[in-house]
Design goal:
The complex is a heterodimer of chains A (about 190) and B (about 90). Chain A has 7 helices and no strands. By secondary structure, chain A is mainly alpha-helical. Chain B is built from 5 helices and no strands. Helix content of chain B is about 75%, strand content about 0%. By secondary structure, chain B is mainly alpha-helical. Chain B starts with a helix and ends with a helix. Classes of the chains: A mainly alpha (about 190), B mainly alpha (about 90). Chains A and B meet through helix 2, helix 6 and helix 7 of A and helix 1, helix 2, helix 4 and helix 5 of B.
Chain lengths: ~190, ~90
């Protein structure tokens, strides 16, 4: 796993870049617009700090490129557009070929049922169904999850959670410090 | 996790190898989750780990959303040339 500190710095650098691009382009923004811009810059900064080494980051960036909103933020943080477009299709092919190669372990229902172990096997089947259901939910939460097989999904989830933590950490620090700074100046002035 | 392991007899060796891998990854995931880590027992079932993971990710998403909200409100109350803006700018530099 990469160093959290350097990841934080990468993220912060790119996020600020996006925020600056945002404020340079539009002087007057509604709060909703501003919030969306902040969130988008944060997500993109997080994804691009991973440099397309993971599926989820790649999916995030590809989706942002496809959507037409706030293109200046996207192009500012991500740089070259066409590169990512080509990468997206090849990544998807890679992901689906992974899926075909491995059997879907969690979905198989090979419960060997004998008279003695019927209850046990039933319990196992129920557990397996539950795992299936939960896996489906997880696939929806992690960007690009639908194309991954199980092992890949868990690896991606690990990385995604770490990056989300970094994102929340940095954003929280900025928000807290900014609030503190603003309230401090208003009391002293 | 034991349920997954015992249903393996009909599969070949390849799936058993990656099955261990999955168990290893699951335990790594477990270590990341705040709730399960605090408990003494580390034998959470697969479905529990997955459930906690989904909840955790949803929470993180919500936090990002709330923080973006907070920051956007903060930034909108600041005039471009005020001393507050200068402070924020210096925080960012």
């Amino acid at each position: 796993m990469s160093n959290t500190g350097s990841l934080k710095q990468e993220f912060l650098k790119k996020w600020i870049q996006g925020l600056k691009a945002c404020s340079a382009k539009k002087k007057e923004m509604s709060i909703m617009e501003r919030k969306k811009a902040i969130k988008l810059s944060a997500d993109l900064a997080m994804a691009s700090a991973r440099n397309s080494t993971t599926y989820w980051s790649h999916t995030l960036m590809a989706n942002a490129l496809q959507a037409n909103k706030n293109k200046f933020i996207v192009s500012d943080i991500l740089g070259n557009d066409s590169d990512h477009g080509i990468k997206k299709s090849s990544m998807r092919v890679l992901a689906t070929s992974h899926k075909n190669m491995r059997s879907k372990k969690i979905l198989k229902k090979s419960c060997s049922i004998s008279r003695r172990s019927k209850k046990k096997a039933l319990g196992r089947c129920i557990a397996r169904n539950l795992v299936n259901k939960r896996t489906q939910v997880l696939k929806r939460l992690v960007p690009g999850g639908e194309y991954m097989d199980d092992e890949c999904l868990i690896k991606e989830t690990l990385d995604y959670i770490l990056s989300l933590r970094v994102q929340v950490d940095v954003m929280r620090h900025l928000a807290n410090n900014a609030t503190h700074a603003v309230s401090h100046t208003t009391t002293t002035s | 996790m034991s349920g997954r392991r015992s249903g393996q007899s009909s599969e070949g060796t390849s799936s058993r190898i990656s099955d261990d891998r999955i168990i290893e990854l699951m335990s790594k995931l477990q270590q990341l989750l705040p709730e399960i880590r605090n408990r003494r027992s580390n034998k959470a079932s697969a479905s529990k780990v997955l459930q906690e993971t989904c909840n955790y990710i949803r929470n993180l998403h919500k936090e990002v959303d709330d923080l973006s909200d907070r920051l956007s409100q903060l930034l909108s109350t600041i005039d471009a040339d005020s001393p507050e803006a200068a402070i924020i700018r210096s925080l960012i530099m």
